Amino acid sequence: MSSREPRFSLNKEDVRLGATCFAGALLLAVMTGPAGTPEQPLGAAKQAIFSSHVFGFLVFGALLASLSVFRRKVRMGEWHSRRETPRRSMRSVLGMRLATMGASWWLLAFVIAVLIALLLADYTGPYVANKFSVAQLMGQFHNTRTYGYIVFVLWIVNSWRLRFSTREHRVHLPAFVKSVWFRVVASALAGFGFALCADPWLPERFSFSYFTFSGPSTHAFLSHLPTWLWSLGGLFLGARAVLADRKTSTKTNRLRARQFGVSTNTRFALYGVALFVAFEAPKFMSPFWQLAIFQQIGIFCFLAIGLNIVVGFAGLLDLGYVAFYALGAYVCAYFSGALPIHPPFILSPFLSIPFAILVCMLSGVLLGLPTLRLRGDYLAIVTLGFGEIIYVLATNLQSVTGGANGTGIIPSFTMNVPGIHFALNGQALSGDLNFYYLLLVIMIPVLLLFTSLNNSRVGRSWAAIREDEVAAASLGISGLKYKVMAFAIGASTSGVAGVLISVKSGVLFPSNFALQVSITVLVLVIFGGMGSITGVLIGSAVIGWILQFLLFHSFIDYQDADKYMYIGAMLILAMIFRPQGLWPSKRREREFHDAEGGLGSADAMSAPSDGSAA
Amino acid sequence: MSNYIAAGLFAGLIYSMVALGYTLVYGVLRLINFAHSEVLMSGAFGGYFFLHAFMKSNIASTPTRFILLFGAIVASGLVGAIVAFAVERFAYRPLRRRNAPKLTYLISAIGASYFLLNFAGKEWGRNPIEPPPVISAAVQWQVFGTHVNLYDLVLLMVTLVLFGIVNWIVVKSKMGRSIRAVAQDSETATLMGVNVNSTIAQTFAIGGFMGGIAGLFIGLAGIVDYNMGFTPALLAFTAAVLGGIGNIRGAMVGGVVLGLCMNVPLYWLQQPYYAPVIGFSILVLVLLVRPTGLFGESLGRSA
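YS: structure for the whole thing
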């Protein structure tokens, strides 16, 4: 810093940061404001903004703004060089204002201490409705604001991380987007949007009635307002994360961006946004979408990520996926005492999940071991047969499964591990929405697990087997072992899905487990893009939507059973025109391309070289 | 007991006709044709519509009945051949041109199967239809303590004749030579002037012809239904594996052995739905113990 620069200068960057923080302060002020009512939303908002809280608002705004300016000075290099330049004399030669810098450190520490104290006081103090408190944060996961906080924190953290890692700016955007005024306005709007969204006038728990467009009155629209603002804010967050990321073009980041499509920062922010949308959006959707998501897309996603392990990762064809789905469901029914034969001990459906996994995994191994030693297409037909056998047995073994008339009533899903008390048909939310959350809570760890599995030694082995099994064997990768592993993992995922569907439907009929389910799930995986978890989820959503759409708008003499005709046609067309799917994984796409050029195989259909020849 | 043996034998004949389609296609493409079950189904529908159109009354004279039966057999065979040809044309050939991985063939074939299955369901209803009784059930003979009716006799004769023809085609004719050449080494066959694409299409058509007729007989024995092909095709595949997939004579013997293995235990079990369970267990057992089947694989060697 040259000494010619004024003592306290505000440049455009400072203004922008200040505005952002100002908006953040507004958010905090409103969040801690008094509660409103649906009848008097604006009055309450006015109260919140212009009453006693205006003081807190001003103080917070000022504190955050000064904090941001100091942080900016950090980026300008002053504090950095203070650390790096040990000798006072050298620092004074460089023209650093030592006293200012020391003071700013102390101020920063003070601000942080005050914030912590505020939080602590809030946490330990008396409970006030609508007041920001950690207790509320932990206890009220139905509360929209919770996710508001989370996303807001993610946003701040992410942008700070980005700032610190920025080396040069290179933005590939229209000029007006780059202009500082655009950003100031956009940040302020976003901040204000979030402030409004963390609404003081919405009740603690949402109910659908607030978000149906039934009432002609103005407050119906006003109570919709937060929804729209939430969505806009989410969009803005996502866009901002992406733009900020492009700006960050350090060498490492550029490399990563090329390797994974987007960099870690963007993904971090996007995951936050996706999580938020996944938790919040279904509450506000129209009945059509709610039906589509709760009835179809949710369970589709779960089934598809399991089959993706077999078809996408390992490159095998499993046509009896529904058999394990049925097994899981009937294991759950067995242990909850809903079958004619009685178990030695009755378990809640939640506790029957491990048994379902065990049974499905064992039957997967038993079925896979003899078959996978041979050519891959034997697996397809053996699983096809297995699915049919399970179906036949479920229909005809009256004394064991209850036959075609269905099982007895399967009790509702309850989860009572320490700290979590969940009942599928509990109060507050409708059963369908509760099922959706149950699915989400189980699916997110599964997704994380499968992603890391694909990036682990196991996933690399699957890729090696897909690409060239002989070469993989020469490196000591046992084809049989990893194929059976993939098959068993897929089977047990399907089993868990079976448990979930059995508690959702309450009664099981063999007709729920016909072969069509396998084919439908296969289509989800193929259409979305085999081997890509994102793609598979997208495929499930799109197909789930199409099926529901066709059902609601029967314009071509469409009946529910006809969907399989379109599904079949879609499979052929997908294989001819786009075998890698809608949203392919980069590696899988390249494998298909290479295989067509005669390089590698892109599937695990040949007999493993360590098994017996066939 | 002899009832069960007879039932197994005649069911086995149908399985071997279907298994032939699997085996032929497997021989030339090294792929399982998942759409073969729908070839059966469409053959049955072809025969049914033929009979429906020409059989005016249930009390036709015996010579008329035989002509009608012959016509229905030819019609179902042709429909089966056309459907199999179409499957090859639309679900296999575009992929072969691109040299796609094996997984994509299987997926596209299962797609074709599902498309045809539900197309039939949509067009012709999802309720089972009873075909006109073209073969009188009244004519029966007593053989070794069991009743053999006219249907069984016709089935036996048709199967033997068709096996003879297919065997002759594959072993003696020029078409058969090119089929065997493609089965052994399709690239070399191309160099020798064999048109691989048309040979594969012919193979599908031959298998489809047999499959369609088998479908007609399944339909005549009971009902015609849009998903009637599934279980018999699965069991026929088991028969093909049992005899050694890719092996024509293996398919013929495998079908009969499978039919007997599935039906004779029912004498003790007394529950007909166990038959597919037994068949499936046989499939897993064969794959476990002797994956090459009873007679070994390879179309080129055995025929």
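YS: worth flagging: Chain B is about 75% helix and 5% strand.
IM: good catch. Also The mean pLDDT of chain B is 87.
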